[in-house]
Design brief:
Length: about 550
């Protein structure tokens, strides 16, 4: 079998896909070798991959064609799919390869790995990534399972932490997966088991320690702010117990601000431009800088210190959002809030601004025509009318007594009240409810992404230990009696009954996939029978 003579034209295939597959099936049924080679040692699978004929590739692999056969040029069928960024065929080839062979391709021994997980992630070949990760699990003879972590822990050259040339500064596969945030990849069993391992070994302790330091600073800052506002001059301290406590708390706050600033600068040194892409980094950096700016402002008795303190306190308080993953429940609710802010509120605000401008301009012109601009101070100018519209949205009620307006202006005001209070606010409520349900349904996957980010940050951004974490806690593999039981305990308790129902739905989908696979096999057998009938009819015609 040789595909090298076929070619494609602008009008379509030289032979239809069905005819090609039927021809391949007849040849395979007559005992043709699916791994036969030509003078270049290329197999039919090489040519099928080169032509991107997924159906033929599947038929050949089902008849035990060698997925890792190499030509004289050292090229495998997978190499062709990889170079062409053909995610479907590449994932299929990985599934039919031996697990150990896949690990060899993506691991570095004496030289760099032939393929790297980092490159697959950069190419966005997510199906292939999942297939590679699935090959990291081997079934043992005693019924247990061995999970290999080498590929996820390797540097950008495929070298794991035990390798002599391992680069500590290089991002691991887990780091890239966490940064991309693809929930399907993060929810892969191997990735979740590695996150669980690192979380229990070191990340949880470091993360909770940082959270407690942050929380203590928030308490001391709150106390200092309350006491300082009662002082005529906050720069003056007396010997009372309250003032002594204030100065101790303020010193602690300043020290933690300095620590936070150095920590953020250390992250910026490592991540460079990537550091600026994370909003939480901006909040951490700006809050610590503003706290330190308070010192010279207070020393020079500047009244601006209160405004700076106000913004610094606001930003420092907002930082609690990134610590929400300490508890699974709060983590899900923060994700809901974030989705509402960046999606729902933005869309709603754009629509409201359009309606507000329409209302404000119409009412302004109507009042001018009626000579009623000065009737109410709230509607004496365009800006004041805009503010009235915003207040109506927030308070959901009338701001001025519109029954005292003339007919035209009253109609405009009533129409605006109806649009805002009845239509827009109810649309917003329905939209927020839908977002809440959608985030709840995917809560566990979202929390796994959050934990992956936490582990990645703890592992790479520590001021002192960031170089040794990956080597100190590296384990090439783990053995489990039952991976499913381990992951079920890792998820417990379930977020709510709805999430439990979602889990059942995923299991049902897996069952449906199995049924479809069986159905496909039956169709394949029917196809064989039809091919044989066609051959018999052709002979009878002759």
């Amino acid at each position: 079998m040789n595909f090298s003579q076929g070619h494609y034209t602008a009008s379509g295939h030289k032979q239809s896909l069905c005819e090609v597959q039927a021809l391949i099936m007849r040849l395979l049924q007559r005992g043709a070798n699916p791994s036969a080679t030509d003078r270049n040692d290329w197999t039919p699978l090489h040519y099928a991959v080169e032509k991107k004929n997924k159906g033929v590739c599947l038929k050949l692999l089902e008849h035990e064609a060698l997925p890792d056969a190499r030509g004289r040029d050292g090229i495998m069928p997978f190499t062709l799919a990889y170079n062409a960024t053909d995610d479907d065929i590449a994932a299929m080839l990985i599934k039919f390869m031996d697990n150990e062979k896949v690990r060899e391709l993506y691991s570095s021994q004496e030289r760099n790995a032939e393929f790297k997980l980092h490159d697959l992630l950069d190419k966005k070949m997510t199906k292939t990534v999942e297939s590679v990760l699935n090959s990291m699990i081997d079934q043992n003879e005693n019924g247990g399972q061995t999970v290999y972590y080498n590929i996820l822990e390797a540097d950008e050259q495929g070298r794991d932490p035990d390798h002599n040339s391992f680069e500590s500064n290089s991002k691991s596969g887990l780091h890239k997966i966490a940064k991309i945030g693809n929930k399907n990849i993060v929810y892969n069993d191997v990735v979740r088991l590695l996150i669980r391992k690192k979380w229990k070994e070191f990340a949880r302790f470091r993360f909770i320690s940082n959270f407690l330091f942050y929380l203590s600073t928030l308490i001391t800052m709150t106390f200092s702010a309350i006491v300082a506002t009662k002082c005529s001059d906050p720069y003056v301290y007396d010997i009372s117990a309250l003032q002594i406590a204030r100065i101790i708390f303020e010193v602690w706050t300043v020290l933690m601000a300095i620590y936070t600033l150095f920590s953020e600068l250390n992250q910026f040194r490592k991540q460079r431009l990537e550091y600026l892409k994370d909003i939480s980094n901006w909040v951490d950096l700006s809050s610590s800088i503003l706290i330190l700016i308070l010192l010279p402002l207070r020393a020079y008795h500047r009244n601006e210190q209160w405004f700076v303190f106000s913004v610094a306190y606001l930003l420092w308080t907002i930082r609690i959002m990134k610590y929400a993953s300490v508890f699974r429940y709060t983590g899900a609710y923060v994700r809901i809030l974030w989705q509402i802010l960046i999606n729902d509120m933005f869309q709603f605000t754009m629509l409201f601004v359009f309606i507000l401008l329409t209302f404000s301009g119409s009412l302004l012109l109507s009042l001018r025509g009626e000579g009623s601009l000065e009737q109410f101070s709230e509607t004496s100018s365009f800006l004041s009318i805009l503010f009235v519209g915003v207040r109506i949205l927030i308070e959901a009620e009338k701001i001025i007594e519109y029954t005292e307006l003339h007919t035209m202006s009253m109609i405009i005001m009533v129409a605006f009240l109806f649009t805002i209070c009845v239509l827009l606010l109810n649309i917003l409520i329905a939209q927020l409810s839908d977002t809440y349900q959608n985030v709840q349904q995917d809560a566990q996957r979202g929390l796994e992404v959050s934990l992956a980010l936490i582990v990645s940050r703890v592992e790479s951004n520590s001021l002192w230990f960031w170089k040794v974490h990956r080597k100190k806690y590296f384990t090439s593999c783990e053995i489990f009696d039952n991976i499913k039981d381990v992951l079920d305990k890792w998820e417990c308790p379930p977020f709510n009954q709805l999430n439990k129902n979602i889990e059942d739905m995923w299991k049902s989908l897996d069952s449906q996939k199995m049924s479809l696979r069986n159905f496909g096999n039956r169709l394949s057998r029917q196809e064989n029978i039809l091919s044989q009938i066609k051959e018999t009819l052709d002979k009878l015609d002759k």
